[in-house]
Batch of 2 targets.
Target 1
Amino acid sequence: MNYAKKFKVDPNSKVKLDEIDAGYKGEHENKESANAELEKHVQRLRELQYLMYAENKRSLLIILQALDAAGKDGTINHVLSAMNPQGCRVYGFKTPSPEELAHDYLWRIHQATPRKGYVAVFNRSHYEDVLVVRVHNLVPKEVWSKRYDEINAFEKQLTDNGTHILKFYLHIDKDEQLARFKQRLDDPNRHWKISESDYAEREYWHEYQKAYEDAISNCSTKDAPWFIIPSNHKWVRNLAVSQILVDALESLGMKFPAPTVDIAEIKRKYHAAEKEEKREDK
Ligand code: AMP
Ligand code: MG
């Protein structure tokens, strides 16, 4: 299954979320059957991230957006645990601080974009500025409606400068969200995740769907595409995200840099040192 092809939102298409099956399973019936493939992707992801770090030429920005309980944290846990923390950073964007609000909305975002060789994962992002901000009228429509173009220009600037961008919307349906809220209520270890606002935001389900549809439709571009990932089944989500990441990284044609030293010469020195060591041991 080519998940990238299946779930990528073509530029200029009009997304209708209620026409997309959040409970999609594809070719696997359950988690067990998907596991071997998932493990393979996770391994490959580890190698590719190492290569990106070694090459030190370009970077990867992964943006995760979704409604509460759709699995942003879970995706980071499962899929991105493959990566070496040395070259990977995760940023969660919360309600802006007074300092952040005193700047333009992209200010805090730009500071978190990945440097060459690094992967950055955004748990929420500048898209909140056309989502929660729109749903709750935090700024007037004249302001947020201009942001789609601004975001496209910002992302273009990043991709032009060597940052590869992949954006994932984790799509669950309303029943699945309620079921997950219940699981949290039933598990004391997950009580800390529950917030008053989860239920309050659920009241705005329809408004959020519309805001997401516009954000995704307006900002899925050739170089910074959106993917809508059916996420009622966590293993489908993990499999799809990991495969899309692997395919994207493979397509970059990354190479280990040429050694900065004469390897033959270093080998010769190593063998000489080894011989010396052995002689001393005698
Ligand atoms: P969580 O990801 O569950 O920790 O929640 C973070 C909260 O921060 C969510 O309720 C978001 O809607 C909110 N948030 C993130 N970015 C913004 C933003 N730019 N403006 C307003 N609220 C935001
Ligand atoms: Mg939350």
Target 2
Amino acid sequence: MANESVNIVDKRTNASYDLPISKGTIRAMDLRQIKANADDFGLMTYDPAFMNTASCQSAITFIDGDKGILRYRGYSIEDLAEKCTFLEVAYLILFGELPTTVQLTQWVNEITHHTMIHETTKKFLEGFSFNAHPMGMYISTVAALSTIYPDARNISDPATRRLQICRLIGKVPTIAAYTYRHSLGYPYVYPDNELSYTENFMNMLWRMVEPKYQANAVLARALDILFILHADHEQNCSANVMRAVGSSQADPYVCTAAAAAALSGPLHGGANEEVLRMLDEIGSKERILAFLENVKAGRGKLMGFGHRIYKNYDPRARIIKWAADRVFEVTGRNPKLEIALELERIALADEYFIKRKLYPNVDFYSGIIYQAMGFKPEMFTVLFAIPRTVGWLAQWQEMLADPEQKISRPRQIYTGHELRKFVPIEKRTAEAVVG
Ligand code: ACO
């Protein structure tokens, strides 16, 4: 609507300000003119954890958290999960439009020819202990790619950017599979360019002595769908890190490693691993009520539940449940599913969870599928990081192209000491050290 504005009266000075409203927001910088006196710095907003602050304008992913809607570039997640391959969706997310047949063939070819990793990267991985967490190995190895491709620093060149994007999307499954093989002490399996993205990933994970790996088509498709669901999720914690690190003009490998580090935490992508540990801890349906009583008393969280944006069902969780049924037809039912279903049923009827609008998120059921497919829980967050690389790179590109973006640098409200007189060491007394 034209001429929308909000009027603010500063009661300190009785001055009145009209601040324009655009797309449901006011610009924080417009507040700076509101001053108590001429020396005043001007009004700022205080918003720890970005509860009500838009950090960018983005055309990639749309979420309506109240209605449980997720769309990539305007297409519903349900349509994309049903009708597309992961690389088709990756193209959409990165370039804004669904590819034509010719564009898709070229794109798949481009990605497929970047799946090999440099032999020194293999040696780098060998330096890790066998019980190293795969996510730690994954993050470090993605960062290490920066040393192999110094051209990646040239972030202002679109052709160079596109090359790094293809390298990253091509190589992350290889790195992920190698962290898995390393932890088992198995030899690494080289990529097979005749296979699809997910089939090749499965080949690098699970091929043993057979000359050609044959992926189970149902499992390969389920993995493809899981990758589609995890590909982007607008300004989440890791996307925000990708943009923040990228805003300093660091190369995309270290940016992606930083984003993956953010993903690894248990409140973000690391939750899928924690869900499995929680289900193990609960152990049987009879113990669910006691577990939930502990959660409600503030002793721990129901992992895989709750979301900053979704205050209705997470649409990805619904599709994952559907995919789980297909997977279990091949693998047999994961016994943890019974506990998870009952846990969900009881929690969704409980006043504590209803009042706080806590619903299952993407991580609640994904681990159960991954485990049925043969993955160890430590691999779950790595499986999340592979497809999310697409979203991170799209967010990075969009940030670089946005003339309004600058180096990411929030303000603070300083709460420490005023200027203090320096105390020489011989005159200092022991006091509690802060921080
Ligand atoms: N179990 C129990 N209580 C919860 C949970 C949970 N999983 N999640 C939120 N709550 C409670 C909080 O304790 C708080 O209660 P209070 O109002 O009495 O203090 C209330 O619900 C609001 O929660 P916040 O922590 O303020 O919500 P926020 O938006 O900051 O956090 C988050 C969202 C981090 C996802 C949170 O729900 C959580 O920790 N969930 C479990 C971890 C998880 O599954 N993470 C994956 C998220 S999806 C993803 O990142 C891919």
